[in-house]
Inverse folding.
């Protein structure tokens, strides 16, 4: 009688385990493009972040995305992610 299992994901910034619905998914597509996946349904390798700028900054400092995607991440990608997160925060 425990009910439905809630999928947990670890934030690449703070390292906290939270439910998948609370997190923001960042994906690497087959073409090597890095995008913010608001729906959580796009194809690609995923990494999860808490919806806070502090976690994004920690992930940048600790190279969390680079470790998750096993590739170097250009600064422009981080800047784009920051802008997209700010827009999500305003909604």
């Amino acid at each position: 009688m425990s009910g439905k299992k809630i999928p947990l994901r670890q934030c690449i910034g703070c390292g906290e385990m939270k439910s998948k619905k609370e997190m923001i998914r960042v994906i690497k597509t087959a073409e090597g493009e890095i995008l913010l996946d608001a729906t959580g349904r796009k194809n690609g390798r995923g990494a999860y972040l808490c919806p806070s700028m502090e976690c994004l900054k920690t992930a940048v400092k600790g190279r969390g995305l680079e470790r998750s995607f096993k590739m170097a991440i250009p600064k422009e990608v981080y800047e784009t992610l920051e802008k997209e997160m700010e827009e999500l925060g305003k909604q």
User: Anything to note?
Assistant: Residues 12 and 67 are 9 Å apart (CA to CA). The chain has a mean pLDDT of 88. The two ends are 37 Å apart (CA to CA).
